[in-house]
Inverse folding.
């Protein structure tokens, strides 16, 4: 097992900059996820780690080993892609065995023992003689995972492995991948555009945007303390406002969003951008309250998501009971606003 370090990795294709300058350190045994919208550079980053792309500048290191010029088959990486890429004419066991074409099974195992132990690991012990088309999508992806793990790689790379599956299968596979990764303790780098999946499965995430890393952190830190407006709006749902600080008072500064003043704890600068999660907005008013019109109400099972119009601004609210009137008064505590720009909410949130 190794740690993986990307230092100033840049990638250009004929004048198109796919990666600006990516620096990431993935710890040994960590489950690390690259998450971001389509085209932000996730796959290019993964391909640079795998050795399918040479960076235009910067370096990739596995442990102390510099990877420049090392071909993919010599990097000790296991890779799982979105489209299972199983061989249809081979059985499940033969597909897993294909993962051993470059090297012998690790430890003292025979080839057949290794294949069987991997099939057990991915809960397919009795499926060795089946052909891929006799399996569900989730089972096929588990075969692909077993094949990637067969040679005992140092690093596991997963590129949107669940995106072709329906929601229920995705949930099941997510749980299994998580269990297998923590059982094996293998350094894992996972790519997804699905922020919910990223938060659920990872030790840490890197949120990417336009070929850059916007923020790296534990899921709960990135969710609670986004560093930028992009992260605030991409990771989960959020309400982001900008305003001018009109007074500094104990208990929070007064910030005017157009003609409406809010008390915001931790605002220091003249211009402040802050966000409030939909679940932090309440329907019982309070100090920082405003009137808004209910546009739509969606039932999500455990809660209602309410879209509001506040003087032409869209505001999202998450509550356990649907509002009964068309006009509502919503509010939030000064401490529940997270400042993105123009102050700090760090100390308050650590209380
Ligand atoms: P998706 O989720 O859609 O796969 P991504 O975040 O993985 O997106 P990349 O595939 O890494 O994004 O692409 C990053 C940028 O680099 C995009 O603008 C893409 O068009 C560009 N790009 C990727 N590969 C090439 C290539 N071979 N030639 C030219 N441009 C490329």
């Amino acid at each position: 097992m190794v740690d993986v370090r990307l230092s100033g990795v840049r990638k250009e294709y004929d004048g198109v900059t796919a990666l600006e300058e990516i620096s990431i350190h993935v710890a040994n045994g960590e489950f690390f996820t690259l998450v971001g919208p389509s085209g932000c550079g996730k796959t290019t980053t993964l391909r640079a780690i795998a050795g399918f792309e040479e960076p235009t500048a910067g370096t990739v290191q596995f442990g102390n080993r510099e990877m420049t010029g090392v071909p993919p088959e010599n990097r000790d990486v296991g890779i799982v892609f979105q489209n299972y890429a199983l061989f249809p004419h081979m059985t499940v066991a033969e597909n897993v065995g294909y993962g051993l074409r470059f090297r012998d099974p690790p430890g003292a195992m025979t080839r057949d023992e290794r294949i069987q132990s991997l099939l057990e690991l991915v809960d397919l012990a009795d499926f060795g003689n089946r052909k891929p088309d006799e399996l569900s999508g989730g089972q096929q992806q588990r075969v692909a995972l077993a094949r990637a793990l067969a040679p005992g790689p140092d690093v596991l790379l997963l590129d949107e492995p669940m995106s072709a599956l329906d929601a229920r299968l995705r949930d099941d596979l997510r749980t299994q991948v998580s269990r297998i990764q923590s059982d094996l303790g293998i350094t894992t780098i996972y790519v997804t555009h699905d922020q919910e999946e990223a938060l659920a499965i990872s030790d840490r995430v890197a949120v990417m945007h336009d070929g850059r890393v916007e923020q790296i952190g534990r899921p709960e830190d990135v969710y609670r303390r986004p560093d930028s407006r992009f992260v605030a709006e991409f990771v989960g749902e959020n309400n982001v406002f900008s305003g001018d600080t009109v007074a500094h008072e104990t208990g929070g500064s007064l910030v005017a969003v157009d003609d409406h003043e809010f008390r915001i704890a931790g605002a220091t600068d003249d211009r402040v951008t802050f966000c409030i999660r939909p679940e932090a907005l309440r329907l019982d008013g309070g100090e920082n309250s405003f009137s808004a019109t209910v546009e739509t109400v969606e039932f999500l099972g455990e809660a209602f998501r309410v879209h509001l119009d506040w003087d032409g601004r869209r505001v999202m609210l998450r509550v356990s009971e649907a509002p009964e009137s068309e006009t509502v008064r919503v509010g939030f505590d000064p401490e529940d606003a997270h400042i993105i720009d123009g102050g700090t909410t760090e100390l308050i949130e650590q209380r």
Notes: The chain has nine helices and 19 strands. The CA atoms of residues 304 and 319 lie 5 Å apart. The two ends are 37 Å apart (CA to CA). The first strand starts at residue 4 and ends at 13.
